[in-house]
């Protein structure tokens, strides 16, 4: 399976705990830091306070304990 890809803003904010967890997990992953000016091109047309999206099903994306 291809590595997981975390896409989040390039500043620490809410994505940082997930980055730290992935770094400690040993899981192969890609840290895709998104510049703020690129966000409008990826933002869905519906408005939402939190947007989570994944190429994989969430069940497959859960890290083992």
Automatic annotation (TrEMBL):
This is Glutathione S-transferase. Keywords: Transferase. One of its GO terms (molecular function) is glutathione transferase activity. The keyword Metal-binding does not apply. The lineage of its organism: Eukaryota, Sar, Stramenopiles, Ochrophyta, PX clade. Its EC number is 2.5.1.18. SUPFAM superfamilies: Thioredoxin-like. It comes from the Eukaryota. Residues 2-65 form the GST N-terminal domain. It comes from Ectocarpus siliculosus (Brown alga). It is an enzyme of class 2 (transferase).
């Amino acid at each position: 399976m291809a590595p997981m890809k975390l896409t989040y803003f390039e500043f620490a904010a809410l994505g940082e705990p997930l980055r730290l967890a992935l770094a400690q997990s040993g899981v192969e992953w890609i840290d895709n830091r998104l510049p703020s000016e690129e966000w409008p091109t990826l933002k869905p047309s519906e408005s939402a306070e939190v947007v989570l999206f994944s190429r994989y099903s969430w069940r497959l994306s859960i890290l083992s304990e």
